[in-house]
Design goal:
alpha+beta, 561 residues, 7-stranded antiparallel sheet, 55% helix
Length: 561
Amino acid sequence: MNSRMQYIPTDTTLRAIRPAATSAFGVLGPCLAAMLTLTTIGCKHLDAFLDDRPPAMPDVPGGNIPALHLGEYEKGHEVSVEQEVGEGAREEAPAEVSLSLAECRALALSGNLALQVEQLSPAIAAEALTEAEAAFEAAVYSDVGYSTTDTPTSSTLTGSHVETITATPGVRLPLRTGGQVQVEAPLTSAETNNVFSTLNPAYTTDLRASIQQPLLRGGGRPVAMSPIHIAEVSRRRSHAMLRLEVTRVLGAVDRVYWQLLASRRELTVREQELQLAEEQLGKAKRMVEAGTKPEVEILRASLGVAERREAIILAGTRVRERERDLKRIVQKPGMDMASRTIVLPVTLPSVAPCRPDPECLIELSLKNRMDLLELELQSVQEALTSLLQKNRTRPLVSLGYTYNVNGLGDDWGDAFDLLFEKRFEDHQLGLRVEIPLGNEAALSRWRQSLLKRARLLAQREQRESIVRQEIYAATDRLGASWQRVVAGRERVTHAARLAEAEAHQFELGLRTSTDVLEAQARLANARSAEIAAIVEYQIAQVDLAVATGCLLAADHIRIQE
């Protein structure tokens, strides 16, 4: 996305403000949605979220840090998993699983723990947006009071005992201009012992409507709607970060998948190398028994067999490490990291030359990179915050108007009749001005928001420069990996010829077992190098796709809001 482009959310892009009179469905809907969200993310203990009791506070252990004695945790002393979690608590882990790359991606999208954590952020941001929109909801209120006074008096013109009952129902409606409309209907019933009182008891019914509108600080539609706009930008940022996390996780799945494939092929190569060494040992023994070779040939061949067995141990360890990496990312049920399930990759690497244009990929990455979009949304959010902070530096000038209709009578009916006749009306217009002296706190907050936005713009330029470097580097690695693939194939061809020639020379008595084993080791190393080059070529393609903000040859993956 072009850094010069800037997006400011408008009212049409925001969701409609919820009506004042919320229906029963409108109240239950968010609750049901929240419960559904907790269920879909795999929450196993929903009751814990609905419990009103405070959670238990874990204790921080004190004293010395315990020592680890590895001998106490050997196979004979350890507690089995079944004893810890109970019989049937864990699914039976299969002995062997064949997984394609597409299946691993699907498993990661549904079970990866990092995605389960990140996918809660959009839901939280959506609730924050709902909270900001709720600032414009109307409020119905009522003040009810009862008072009785009994005071001494020096004149019979005033009463000493007054009993009053008041009720003031009303409606308060915030405006999108920053003001507020308030409608009240005060009702009063007063009874006194004043003998000169014409109406005793007296009933008053008023209808009062008032509006308060700030003109400078806090006034205006852009300022009043800023919290909603900021919450909307925050919601979009959370979705951008979720897409970034999905891209990162799927990229990690691809890398680990190809690394596991390389480790398994490496193990196969080392097993073949061990088989050739054992065959060479058999040949040496037969030739020594026939008297055509000295006995030292058996020692040379035996040493080669031992070295090949060590290589198999190391290759098997790397396979198990890659399997645990893949299990940790995909989180397949019944196939956790502690299981002994063997994972067999079945997707074959695509070995075809490709020479993408880095300039085209840079243009694509500037449009699709979610980290760049997140920085741009941060800049927009900071611009809205700066607008709000700038408004708060202005003086407080508030204009108010109140209209009141009075009603009075010796009963409620007469009081309401006089109210509806509108014979007694009041009008009140007021202006309140408050000018801060200094106002350094508000000015400082405004300057901070300006500096933060300038820093975000600089960070975006820096990030764009890093993205360009990543694209160039990934393109170079892709080209170098392909050249390594071509060179590796040629190396395997020559190494195979050399191994065959050395074995023939050994049979003729012109070479020793050491020469044959060295030729076989060169062949195994050449095959390992070719496998590594092919896998690095696949990983280079994955890195290039991730650097552009895309997914390499992925199935159709859509993040639904």
